[in-house]
Amino acid sequence: MGNRFLKGAMILSISMFATKFLGILYVIPFQQLVGASGMALYNYAYTPYALFISLSTLGIPVGIAKFVSKYNAAKEYDTARTMFRYASWFMIALGCVGFLTMYNMAPWYANVVLAGQSELANTVEDVTMAIQTISFALLIIPVMAIFRGFFQGNQNMVPTSVSQFVEQVVRIVFILVGSYYIIHIKGGTAKEAVGFSVFSAFLAGITAFLILYYYWRKNVKQYNQLLNETVSHEPRNFGNLFTELIAYAIPFAILGLATNLFQIVDQTTYNHYMLKSGLDGVIVEDSYGMYAGSLYKIIMIPVSFAISFGQPLIPELTYHLTEGNMKSVRKNLMLAIQLTCFITVPAVVGMALLSEPIFIMFFNSSVKGYNAMGGDIFRLGSLLGLFMALYSIVTAILQGIGKQWNGIIFLVLSLGIKYLGNVLLIPIFKTDGATMATMISYTFCIVMSLVVIQRETKFKVANLIRRLVAIFVFTGVMALVVVGVKFILDLFMNYQVHHMLSYLYVGIAGLFGVIVYFGLAWYFDLIETLFGTKFSLKRLKGRIVRRR
């Protein structure tokens, strides 16, 4: 745990896990309040919002983190501080532009999303209202993000972690309390509740910014002391520095848009091609809510670990590259990939095996056939988590080693693959077709990125594969145990009839899976290996023989 990257990743992991877990828990009562069509309306607003957040920040927060890390390593603390100040004003202006653009484009986008279909539960006016309401958050989120980037560049992950967690808690409180008041006390509609719920992003953003400002005031003396330790250097041209920052930031913004861009492709093709297959309009929209809303909230829990590894990884790799320490670069990128797979692989496999009871546990529906449909969507969709997690890590590595433009080329090509995949696969496989198209697109990006990373860093592929094989083997054993436990539970526990039994069903099967997986990882020293101990097949064989 002495590794600085690992410490930062662990701090962010705890925060992001708690944040994402809360993000799932609130969906249960929220969906009961607003219904499936309300959830679809909520997702119609959040997908373009996430896209505009990325466009309104242009990746500058992570660009600042990389910039600050680089110039701190060179002892040019004044250069890092100056750029932070100017970038803050730039982000305020960018947020205003993003707000005005999203607000005014809402009617056009609403028409595109609904594909001119009048039989859907939500109208163009409803979607326009939700998008325009959430756009106000763009006024505060960009400048808030720049503070997080500065803290991360100084290897301080606590402000980001605390502010993200509190932001989520405040947002959820506003969503649930506000929705309950509007529907059950005021006597309003679910659509009005959704409107207030999306506005909570703005209210929560203000709260998070105040927390970040508190940490800034708390640490500003330390940062001022660093200014006094600045080494002599040639005067820096602001225009050149800003160009350098943008060169870091824009690629990150584009690469970070992958999931949002794939979802945009889904939003503009899913309803159209599902309706062409002959399905009822209400079922199509509700299935979209399950796929783009409920599913993604679940799989973002394991994916959040990859994101938490990626955020400190970029400045860390930049720091070591500035020092010319390639050994540390290889060590940290290998560790990030291994830790991502160690957490994500068993998680997504377990979710796939328990797809229907997990759906019932979080999103139980009284509509006949909806629980089974949700379980079917979750079964294959859960595996998307692994692809999203690996993509997050390999693109972070590309940016850390300065090869982000390669990632952009791969992403552009993958969008064409995604669109073609939706057109060809959705009419045949329905929702699974959209899932498969996304998997194929991510696979293309991941494989091509790893080729570039290996070429630039010369990390040993054999060492990585050897450790990943152990993870997949242990996951396979875990899967067999979970299947066996499910077979036994199915004999006397019908979670489909009694909703509350789904909690017990998932808890028992999940507990066995966790014990088996982590027990194997501990027994064969894989856990220890991830923290630096050598792992080899010879040692693995010796351990088995010795235990016999």
From TrEMBL:
InterPro entries: PG_synth_SpoVB, Poly_Biosynth_Transport, Polysacc_synth. Pfam families: Polysacc_synt (PF01943). The keyword Lipid biosynthesis does not apply. It comes from the Bacteria. Keywords: Cell cycle, Cell division, Cell membrane, Membrane, Transmembrane, Transmembrane helix. CDD domains: MATE_SpoVB_like (cd13124). The keyword Cell membrane applies. This is Cell division protein. The lineage of its organism: Bacteria, Bacillati, Bacillota, Erysipelotrichia, Erysipelotrichales.
